[in-house]
Task: inverse folding
């Protein structure tokens, strides 16, 4: 299978005054077309930074990122925005819908940036919302929808312009376990029926195992597996987060 | 695309509710003030122009240069005389030249003393008609003065309706002017201007005797025979008068003005006053612009997450910039529309007050399409200019930073 995403020796360094923080330290990662990959690691392992790089939201300090064979590490703002809109669909932990717009308008927004006509946009948005089984909720604003429904609107938005890759950043993080697992099932189904490439970032082992393959990240690098200490650390973090949510 | 930007801007403005209204307040006040002031200034100019139009383009007025205020011919260094009038009448291009004497007088009505002005009526029929024409004098009740009338006068409309002399005067009433009794034989039509409605007309010969004023004229009005040769006629009059009065060129102690020149000088004064007042009103527009800028900076901060999301799903810097730019332009434009409506209201209200309280039809608000379109455009520009910096800030936001809470 062809690689759709390739990260080669990617470094991301943040300049914090006198200190330099390396979020990524020579990260190498390959995602094959049609693959469902989970990136797993504890907080601070660099998984969100890696995700931003793949999603063309950020450029590496050094190294190269290839998306569908094209090096995006040296592209300008407008080109990156174009690629984000065309090739990538984002799903965020906190849904990130625009609260002033209806579900349909939210789904139409990325299509607007692609200069599609209004009728085309409406048709595609309606299709996408029907696919996530929200055909009857098109004119509701996010505040009128449950968490699971909001995340499905976000999925519809990510799917609306049939992107090459779906990037999901902790897609179940803000949902209860039942709703979360139904969202995961949906992503799984999407992958199986349509062959959509999905890259999902999570710190939850159970969630990660829904994917075809897991890439473990630690200290800004891919490791073969997480050692016991790290696994424990993740478990403690998960428990703390659950406590905080409760 | 533009329509989508507008939709987003509209949603954002309506969502802010009362805060949007407060933001637009500065623009309301500024535009309303500018529109009402300019419209009243333009109305005043129009009214003056209309008054001059009555006089016609063929009119040339000659006056001695003044050394003080008051009506024409008063307080002058070297008054015009009947000799001057005769010289002017002989100038080529002069159809009719008529002199008018205007003097202050004391009037006694019911044992009360009042001060007013008396204007003379020429004996010659053509000259009389010409003076009546340029003085905008028409008879409403009674009759005009005949050249043989001795103790007869005609009076301005204010003396008939406004009790200017303590009571309303009617045809047949007698009033005492400088110790002599005069009978009212005519009442002038109301014209809405003090210089017409407050005048008392008397035959020139009678006046000269009464006021012991054998030769002087306050003003000489010329009807030119050819309006295409106004400048030449004016020059010939100047030359003839210089010779008659023994004056060198440039040392004239009189002025010769066509009605176009007089209108221009009054218009210029009105323009300056209007511009000055509008400039002061425009300060409020500037403050309004700063208000919009402040609101837009807040809006950018409030919607930082939205900006991040939009960038993540393919929004370019240009898209984000346009969204905020149009929103602030929209704030300015909406403020402008309401300001214009308010301005029209204020203008019409002042006009109403002017008509009712002052009885003057001079204060008319005139709203030209240029003024309204200009005000609309200007309010949009103020809004858009105020939004440029905040919109640039929003556009340049790093998507990763914007998405981070």
Result:
């Amino acid at each position: 299978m062809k690689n759709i995403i390739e990260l080669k020796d990617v470094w991301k360094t943040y300049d914090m005054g006198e200190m330099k923080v390396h979020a990524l330290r020579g990260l190498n990662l390959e995602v094959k077309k049609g693959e469902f990959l989970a990136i797993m690691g504890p907080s601070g392992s660099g998984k969100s930074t890696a995700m931003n790089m793949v999603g063309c939201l950020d450029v590496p300090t050094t190294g190269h990122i290839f998306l569908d064979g094209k090096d995006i590490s040296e592209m300008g703002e407008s080109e990156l925005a174009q690629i984000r809109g065309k090739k990538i669909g984002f799903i965020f932990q906190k849904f990130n819908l625009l609260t002033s717009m209806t579900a349909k308008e939210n789904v139409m927004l990325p299509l607007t940036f692609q200069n599609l006509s209004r009728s085309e946009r409406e048709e595609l948005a309606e299709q996408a919302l029907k696919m996530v089984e929200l055909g009857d909720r098109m004119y509701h604003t996010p505040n009128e929808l449950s968490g699971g429904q909001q995340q499905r609107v976000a999925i519809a938005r990510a799917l609306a312009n049939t992107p090459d890759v779906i990037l999901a950043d902790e897609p179940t993080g803000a949902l209860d376990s039942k709703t979360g697992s139904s969202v995961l099932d949906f992503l799984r189904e999407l992958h199986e029926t349509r062959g959509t490439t999905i890259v999902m970032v999570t710190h939850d082992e159970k969630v990660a195992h829904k994917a075809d393959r897991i890439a473990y990240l630690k200290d800004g690098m891919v490791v073969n597996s997480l050692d016991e200490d790290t696994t424990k650390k993740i478990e403690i973090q998960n428990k703390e987060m659950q406590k905080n949510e409760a | 695309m533009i329509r989508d930007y507008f939709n987003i801007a509209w949603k954002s403005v309506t969502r802010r509710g009362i805060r949007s209204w407060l933001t637009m307040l500065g623009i309301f006040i500024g535009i309303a003030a500018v529109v009402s002031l300019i419209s009243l200034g333009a109305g005043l100019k129009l009214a003056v122009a209309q008054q001059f139009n009555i006089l016609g383009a063929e009119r040339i007025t000659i006056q001695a240069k003044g050394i003080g205020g008051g009506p024409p011919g008063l307080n002058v260094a070297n008054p015009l005389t009947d000799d001057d009038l005769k010289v002017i009448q002989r100038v080529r291009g002069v159809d009719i030249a008529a002199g008018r004497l205007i003097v202050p007088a004391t009037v006694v009505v019911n044992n009360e003393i009042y001060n007013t002005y008396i204007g003379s009526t020429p004996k010659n029929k053509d000259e009389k008609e010409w003076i009546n024409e340029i003085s905008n004098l028409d008879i409403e009740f009674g009759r005009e003065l005949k050249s043989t009338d001795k103790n007869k006068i005609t009076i301005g409309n204010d003396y008939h309706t406004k009790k200017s002399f303590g009571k309303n005067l009617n045809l047949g009433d007698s009033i005492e002017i400088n110790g002599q009794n005069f009978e009212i034989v005519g009442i002038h039509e109301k014209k809405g201007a003090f210089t017409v409605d407050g005048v008392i007309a008397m035959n020139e010969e009678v006046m000269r005797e009464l006021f012991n004023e054998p030769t002087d004229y306050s003003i000489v009005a010329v009807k030119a025979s050819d309006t295409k040769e106004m400048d030449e006629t004016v020059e010939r009059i100047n030359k003839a008068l210089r010779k008659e009065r023994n004056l060198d060129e440039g040392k004239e102690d009189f002025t010769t003005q066509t009605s176009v020149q007089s209108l221009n000088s009054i218009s210029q004064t009105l323009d300056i006053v209007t511009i000055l007042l509008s400039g002061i009103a425009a300060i409020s527009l500037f403050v309004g612009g700063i208000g919009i800028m402040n609101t837009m900076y807040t809006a950018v901060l409030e919607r930082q997450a939205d900006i991040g999301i939009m960038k993540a799903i393919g929004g370019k810097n240009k898209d984000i910039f346009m969204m905020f730019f149009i929103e602030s332009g929209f704030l300015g434009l909406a403020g402008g529309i309401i300001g214009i409506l308010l301005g029209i209201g204020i203008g019409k209200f002042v006009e109403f007050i002017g008509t009712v309280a002052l009885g003057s039809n001079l204060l008319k608000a005139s709203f030209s399409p240029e003024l309204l379109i200009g005000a609309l455009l200007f309010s949009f520009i103020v809004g858009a200019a105020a939004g440029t910096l905040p919109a640039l800030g929003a556009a340049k936001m790093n998507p990763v930073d914007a998405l981070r809470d």
Observations:
- Chain B has two domains: 2-52+264-403, 102-212.
